[in-house]
Design brief:
By secondary structure, the protein is of the alpha/beta class. It is about 40% helix and about 20% strand. The chain has a 9-stranded mixed β-sheet, with helices on both faces. A 3-stranded antiparallel β-sheet has the order 10-11-12, with no helix packed on it. Strands 13-15-14 form a 3-stranded antiparallel β-sheet.
C-alpha cells in the first residue's frame, strides 16, 4: 500500500506563521493543474505495482480549486495507478471556501474526508495569525460540513500569544460540540523567515510562552480523552475508526509519492523533494523533466527515522524490528540511550515495544533526537 500527496501551492493570503510553499497569486493555477496531472503520469512507475490507499490534497489551500479541477487530478491518479476500492481521499479546506454549494459539490465528488483549517474560534487569534476566515465562518463551515460529510478533521493551534488557558479550553469545547471525529492540533511554532518571527522581533507581538504551550497541550490531551478521542500520534486525535489513514501511513513508514512544487516523497530507503518554485516547476514538467532532488538514506538515517516516527505514535518502536531491520548494534544503542528516559518515566517498554509516556509526549522530538545515532 502507498499514498499520494498532491500539493496545491496557492492561498488567498499569507498566514503570519506559515513557512509552507505557496503563492497568493492564482495566475498560474490552470498551468499548475496541467503540470500536476503530467507529473502524476511521469511518475507512474515510481511505486512499482504498489496499490494506492490514500490521496491527500494539501497546501497551500486546496479548497481554492474548483470541484472540477479536483476531480481532474483524482482521475489522473486512477488513470496511472492501481487504487484500492474505497480509498481515503482528503481535501484540506479553509472555512471561508466552504459555502454550502461548494460542500454539496465536494460531497458528490470522490472526496470522502475534509480537513478544515479552523485554528481558533476566537477573532483575536485569527487576526493575530492573519487567517482569511473569521470565527463565524469557522462555525458555519462545520455546521454545513457535518450535514454532508461523516469523516471530518479540524485543525486547532495552541500556544498562541495572548490566548489564555480558559480560552483554549473553550476552543476545544466548541470543536467537540460539532461532533467531529478527528482533531489535529499543533503548537504555534515561530519559524525563521516568517512574518510572525519578524513581528515578535519588532515587539509587535509577544513571543510564544513555552510553559503556557505545554499547559495547553496537557489540557488538550485531557479534554479530548474525556471526549472519547484516542491520541494515536502526538498531534493527531481520532475517534475509533476515524484515524487518518494518510497521516498514519507517514508515521508507520509506508511509501508515499509527493506531487507538486515542494512536495516530498519517501519509499523507505530514498527521500526526494520537488523544487519550491511554481514557475520553474511548471517549466520543468512541460519539458518532461522532473524537478526533483533525491537523497538515499543510510542505515543510520533509516534507524533514526524509524525511532522518530514510532515514538510519536501509540504503536511505538518495536525492539524486535530494530534488531531485524538494523542489527544488534542499533538495538543495544537504543536500549542504552533510552535508559535515563525510562527512569524519568518519559519512555516505557510494553510487550517488546518502546513507547512515549504521558510526560514525554510534549518532549518527544527532543527525546527522539537523544536516541538518534550519528552517521
Amino acid at each position: 500500500m502507498a499514498g499520494i500527496y498532491i500539493h496545491i501551492p496557492f492561498c488567498k493570503q499569507a498566514c503570519f506563521y506559515c513557512d509552507f510553499h505557496f503563492s497568493t497569486s492564482l495566475k498560474k493555477k490552470e498551468d499548475m493543474i496541467v503540470a500536476l496531472i503530467k507529473e502524476i503520469a511521469l511518475r507512474k512507475e515510481e511505486l512499482g505495482d504498489t496499490t494506492i490507499e490514500t490521496i491527500y490534497f494539501g497546501g497551500g489551500t486546496p479548497s481554492v480549486l474548483s470541484t472540477a479541477e479536483i476531480k481532474e487530478l483524482i482521475a489522473a491518479v486512477y488513470l496511472n495507478f492501481e487504487v484500492v476500492k474505497n480509498p481515503e481521499i482528503t481535501l484540506e479546506a479553509n472555512p471561508d471556501d466552504l459555502s454550502e454549494e461548494k460542500i454539496i459539490a465536494l460531497s458528490k465528488s470522490p472526496i470522502n474526508r475534509l480537513s478544515i483549517g479552523v485554528q481558533s474560534f476566537f477573532e483575536k487569534d485569527l487576526k493575530l495569525m492573519n487567517r482569511a476566515h473569521n470565527a463565524a465562518e469557522a462555525k458555519k463551515s462545520l455546521v454545513l460540513a457535518t450535514r454532508y460529510f461523516e469523516n471530518i478533521s479540524l485543525d486547532l493551534i495552541y500556544g498562541i500569544p495572548g490566548c489564555t488557558n480558559e480560552e483554549w479550553l473553550a476552543n476545544i469545547k466548541i470543536a467537540l460540540s460539532f461532533g467531529i471525529p478527528h482533531i489535529s492540533s499543533y503548537a504555534l511554532v515561530v519559524e525563521p523567515h516568517t512574518a510572525l518571527k519578524t513581528m515578535i522581533e519588532k515587539g509587535k507581538i509577544k513571543n510564544v510562552d513555552d510553559a503556557k504551550t505545554q499547559e495547553q497541550f496537557q489540557i488538550l490531551i485531557k479534554e479530548l480523552a474525556i471526549g472519547g478521542f484516542i491520541q494515536y500520534e502526538v498531534s493527531s486525535f481520532g475517534k475509533e475508526g476515524f484515524f487518518s489513514k494518510n497521516n498514519s501511513s507517514y508515521w508507520l513508514g509506508v511509501a508515499y509519492l509527493g506531487i507538486g512544487p515542494s512536495a516530498h516523497s519517501f519509499d523507505g530507503k530514498q527521500r526526494s523533494w520537488n523544487i519550491k518554485n511554481n514557475t520553474k516547476y511548471i517549466k520543468s514538467i512541460q519539458e518532461n523533466v522532473l524537478p526533483i532532488e533525491r537523497e538515499t538514506l543510510s542505515t543510520t538515517d533509516q534507524y533514526n527515522e524509524f525511532v522518530m516516527t514510532g515514538l510519536r505514535t501509540i504503536w511505538g518502536v518495536s525492539l524486535e524490528k530494530i534488531k531485524d531491520n538494523f542489527g544488534k548494534k542499533y538495538l543495544d544503542y537504543l536500549e542504552n540511550q533510552s535508559k535515563k528516559h525510562i527512569e524519568e518515566t518519559l519512555l516505557f517498554v510494553e510487550n517488546g515495544t518502546l513507547k512515549t509516556g504521558e510526560k514525554g509526549r510534549f518532549l518527544v522530538d527532543g527525546i527522539a533526537a537523544d536516541l538518534f545515532m550519528l552517521n
